[in-house]
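Morning run. Coffee first, then this:
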Amino acid sequence: MDFQNIGHQEWAKLNGGQFCFDLSGSGAPALTASEFPPLAEPAGVEGMPGYGFSDLAALIARHYGTNRDRVLWAAGTSLANFLVAAAVVRPGDDVLVERPTYEPLRGIPTALGANLIRFDRRADAGFVPDLDEIAALTTPRTSLIMLSNLHNPSHTALPAGFLGRLHELARERRIHVLVDEVYLEFALDPGVSPGPHAAATLGPEMISTSSLTKVYGLGGLRAGWAILDGALRAHAFRVADYLGVNESTPSARISARVLRGLPGLALRSRKAAARGRAVFTDWLAGRSDLAEVAPAGGMVAFARITSGVNSRRLATHLAARYDTLVTPGEFFESPGFIRIGLGLPSERLAEALGRLGRALDDLA
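And here it is:
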């Protein structure tokens, strides 16, 4: 295995929390102590027997309307993605990955010794993949297709029927499809099950991954999962045995408590997202140097700089002069774009966007 540097994660870890205004986030604001669901009992630290925490698996399964034997528990969506890919992919396989995408999705196949093949999600097509292009790129060596819904970084949704047609292709050619759905529930009403919208409900070739991080503001729990076929789940747990003995019991117990109160947390996130989107929309209306493909939901704007200002130079100037952090599109293979987090409180978000506007004016 060859684990290359993941530039975006390194940048985020070194820069997050270092600036007065941070527009680099992509999820719901972290829960405060007063917002956290009360625990019926302390979250003990004793180890959990067997594979996975059965109560937690049952709650996740109920959330999706599926069987708990299809739930793989993992420390976050990124680890779930890795465990699934490692269970499917062998050195020399072809793996198709969307472009642009979240950097670890394209890094995992390379680390596993696979041949990385890309298919495009173009801004001028609303970031919708071309199924004919995907079909043309598959070979007898193709073992896995990886993409996201909502798309990361644009937060656009796959159109109705797309996953069904992709499943037909995967079934015909005996290919697995992993869909990172960590942002999907931003596009659903509180209390609505992601099951009917999740790729994994379509058939054993399809896999959904997600977590409590982005939509629910609970990144610190490292609570993630995959919904997948039972035989593949068993293989993925064998991969997990090489990476750790057991899951974190306190995290699992707290996560189980949280899952019982998800509709309330989803409503909190939707309200925060609506407030942030309203502030951004008002600000964007006064700018002639940015354009955006409307997202399906969530707390980010993926905006193209139409004035020709270099996106990495903009991010550097914004940080140095205005003490404000924004994510340059280079981390998503999209020079000339910036990803703007909208999760700050309204007044702070308005101030941060004002600083971004001044930085754009400086460099125009």
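The chain has eleven helices and 13 strands. Good start to the day.
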